[in-house]
Write a structure and sequence with these properties.
The chain has about 130 residues and is mainly α. The chain has helices at about 10-30, 55-65, 65-85, 90-105, 110-120.
């Protein structure tokens, strides 16, 4: 029908459908090669079954990692995500390490963390 108005809530349903498709694509695409891209001394905490149900506990494990390790994970995540879509597990590792690095490495200062990251991409140390 020309001129017909879409049913109420169609945008919300469309966004939900799009999100499900993106998550399915992410799950089917290999991303961060977990520990392969990291030094042997820098191992991200492994999530147990239903790990996202204990987000605070998992984040606490990441916050215990040395700052150098968090920076290494962050850099590996940036490189991997610039080449392909990350799978769900890799995206979770990247998210938790990003949050822990922001809190512990930069005292919550997002701009300082981005300045550090830009210097890493340029090949210089701040």
């Amino acid at each position: 029908m020309l001129g017909a108005q879409p049913a109420p809530g169609w945008e919300k349903r469309m966004r939900a459908t799009l999100l499900r498709c993106l998550l399915a694509a992410a799950a089917a695409t290999p991303g961060l090669a977990s520990a392969d891209a990291l030094s042997s001394s820098c191992e991200p905490p492994q999530a147990q079954d239903g790990a996202l149900s204990d987000r605070a506990g998992l984040l606490a494990l990441y916050e215990r990692l040395p700052q150098a390790c968090l920076r290494e994970i962050f850099t590996a995540c940036a490189q991997a995500s610039s080449k392909s879509l990350l799978d769900f597990e890799s995206a979770a590792v990247c998210s938790f390490s990003h949050e822990a690095l922001l809190k512990n490495g930069f005292n919550g200062n997002f701009h300082a963390m981005m300045a550090w990251w830009q210097s890493q991409r340029a090949g210089t140390q701040p």
